[in-house]
Write a structure and sequence with these properties.
mainly alpha, 4 helices
């Protein structure tokens, strides 16, 4: 079980693992139900990213509060305690950011794993040659017939 399994499955045996080959809960007729949206790897990664962002925001607010308290306090013992708390918050923040960066670097779930092994080559074709077409007469006739207005009023 790799680190991504721990993040996404959190020890549950009723979900798919990261590779998609893990055990799934069987229905009464013995057939595995199709994975729901909540069971897909992409949604699990998105959910974990959201949780990490919430934790990072909490740590940032704690750091800002501790920095403000450090600035306004004059008690030396309290400043040492706040400095220790700041270093703890900064280390937590660094760990959360590293975990988020690791999740963001995982592109495997976003690649098409169901693609056929055979792909047809693309054949480059030259551009077609086109010729200018004069459409002023048909448009002038259309304006005259449908709007009963002088087509010359609309020419450049």
């Amino acid at each position: 079980m790799d680190m991504m399994d721990v993040y996404l499955n959190e020890g549950r045996s009723d979900t798919f693992d990261v590779t998609g080959t893990g055990p799934a809960e069987l229905s009464q007729d013995g057939v595995s139900p199709p994975p729901t949206r909540n069971d897909t790897l992409r949604s699990k990664l998105q959910l974990r990213r959201g949780e990490l962002n919430v934790q990072i925001n909490k740590e940032l607010m704690m750091r800002a509060g501790a920095e403000n308290l450090y600035k306004v306090t004059s008690d030396k013992k309290l400043k040492e305690t706040i400095a220790l708390e700041l270093s703890f918050v900064n280390s937590n923040l660094q760990l959360l950011k590293e975990e988020l960066a690791e999740l963001n670097s995982n592109v495997e779930p976003y690649q098409n794993s169901t693609a056929s092994p055979f792909t047809s080559p693309m054949i480059p074709l030259g551009l077609k040659e086109t010729k200018d077409i004069d459409v002023t007469m048909p448009i002038s006739d259309f304006i005259l017939e449908h709007y009963s207005e002088n087509p010359d009023d609309y020419s450049k």
